[in-house]
C-alpha cells in the first residue's frame, strides 16, 4: 500500500495539470442562412437550452459507447454548449427573415412565442456527428404548448481530426436549425 501512495500522487498531479492546461483550439459554430429583411409578425424568445451536465460545458463531447462520455483532446467550444446553441438558433431565426424580432431573456421584447429546446445529443458517436434536439413552441401569454417536435441529424465525419469533427457537428446543427426555423415559423 505504501508503494502505491507515491504513484497515486504522481497520477493525480498529472491529471490536474491536464485539466488545468489550455486547449490548443477554440471552436465556434455558424448560424445557417443569409440574413433577410424581417417579414414575419411573431416576436420570439429563445431561452437557454436544457441538457445533461455532460453537455453543459465548453468541452466538445464524444460517445465512445452509448453509456460513456469523453471529450475531444485540446479542443473546446467558444462558450458553454447550451449558450452557444442558443445564440446560433437566435441568429438562424433572425436570418430567416420570418420573425419581427428574436431575443434571449432579458432583452426586453414583448414575446409572442417561446422556443424551448432540449439538447438530447450534440456529439461525435459511432454514427458520426449527431445533433439531436426536442423543441417546444409555447404561447408566451398563457404558457400553452402549441407544438413539440424532435429534430435529429447525423453527418458523417471525414476524419478524426478535431476540425473535421467540429465541421460535421456544425453541419448537423445547421440542418436541424433550418428545420426548426421552418417548423416553428410556419
Describe this structure in words.
The protein has helices spanning 4-20, 81-96, 162-184; strands at 25-27, 43-45, 59-65, 68-77, 101-103, 113-125, 128-139, 145-155. Helices cover 30% and strands 33% of the residues. The chain has one domain (27-184): Rossmann fold, CATH 3.40.50.10610. It is an alpha/beta fold and 186 residues long. Strand 6 (113-125) and strand 7 (128-139) form a beta hairpin. The strands form 2 sheets. The protein has a 5-stranded mixed sheet with strand order 5-2-6-7-8, with helices on one face. Strands 1-4-3 form a 3-stranded mixed sheet, with helices on one face. 29% of the residues are buried.
Supply database-style keywords.
single chain; 186 residues; alpha/beta; Rossmann fold; 3-stranded mixed sheet; 33% strand; elongated; disordered N terminus
Amino acid at each position: 500500500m505504501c508503494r502505491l501512495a507515491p504513484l497515486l500522487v504522481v497520477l493525480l498531479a498529472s491529471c490536474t495539470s491536464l485539466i488545468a492546461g489550455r486547449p490548443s483550439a477554440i471552436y465556434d459554430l455558424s448560424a445557417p442562412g443569409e440574413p433577410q429583411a424581417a417579414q414575419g409578425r411573431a416576436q420570439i424568445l429563445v431561452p437557454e437550452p436544457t441538457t445533461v451536465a455532460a453537455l453543459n460545458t465548453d468541452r466538445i463531447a464524444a460517445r465512445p459507447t452509448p453509456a460513456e462520455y469523453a471529450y475531444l483532446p485540446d479542443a473546446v467550444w467558444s462558450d458553454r454548449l447550451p449558450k452557444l446553441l442558443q445564440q446560433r438558433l437566435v441568429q438562424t431565426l433572425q436570418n430567416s427573415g420570418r420573425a419581427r424580432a428574436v431575443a434571449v431573456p432579458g432583452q426586453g421584447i414583448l414575446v409572442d412565442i417561446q422556443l424551448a429546446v432540449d439538447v438530447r445529443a450534440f456529439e461525435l458517436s459511432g454514427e458520426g456527428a449527431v445533433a439531436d434536439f426536442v423543441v417546444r413552441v409555447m404561447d408566451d401569454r398563457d404558457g400553452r404548448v402549441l407544438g413539440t417536435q424532435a429534430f435529429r441529424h447525423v453527418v458523417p465525419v471525414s476524419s478524426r481530426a478535431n476540425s473535421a469533427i467540429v465541421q460535421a457537428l456544425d453541419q448537423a446543427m445547421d440542418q436541424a436549425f433550418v428545420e426548426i426555423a421552418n417548423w416553428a415559423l410556419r
